[in-house]
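User: I'm designing a mutation panel for Cysteine desufuration protein SufE and want to avoid disrupting the core. Could you give me a predicted structure to guide residue selection? Please restate the sequence first so the numbering is unambiguous.

Assistant: Good idea. Sequence first, for numbering, then the predicted structure tokens:
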Amino acid sequence: MPMPPKLAEIVDEFAAAPRDVVLEMLLEFSDAVAPLPESLAGHEGMEQVPECQTQFFLRAAVNPDRTVDVWFDCPPEAPTTRAFAGILTEGLAGATADEILAVPDDLYQRMGLAQAISPLRVRGGTAVLARLKRQVREQIG
């Protein structure tokens, strides 16, 4: 199964962009992270991603129709990390569990981010995706 169309489009845009524009494009996604709903205040029920240099929390909820709701939280002072969340927020909106599980583990390398940001940041983004996929797998059995 291919990755969700919106995410594939984002990946293609980044992969085709000149290297000097990639970081600017990345930072635009940091604004795509919505505030947490009241039910997740204080990160209740969210998982922390310790591989990230900054505090990062996530939660995935698989609905009865197998679509997945995803929530992320990290501080605005960490725009690169927030951008990873923004990319997943936009790219996975309305995605099913199977579509999320089909997202390649090397997503950020495919986007060309390994040439634009530090390996430590790419590793953090990869960990976010891995934990998101694990939460989805656990819920669908």
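For picking mutation sites, this is relevant: The chain has a mean pLDDT of 93. The chain has one domain: 5-35+46-140.
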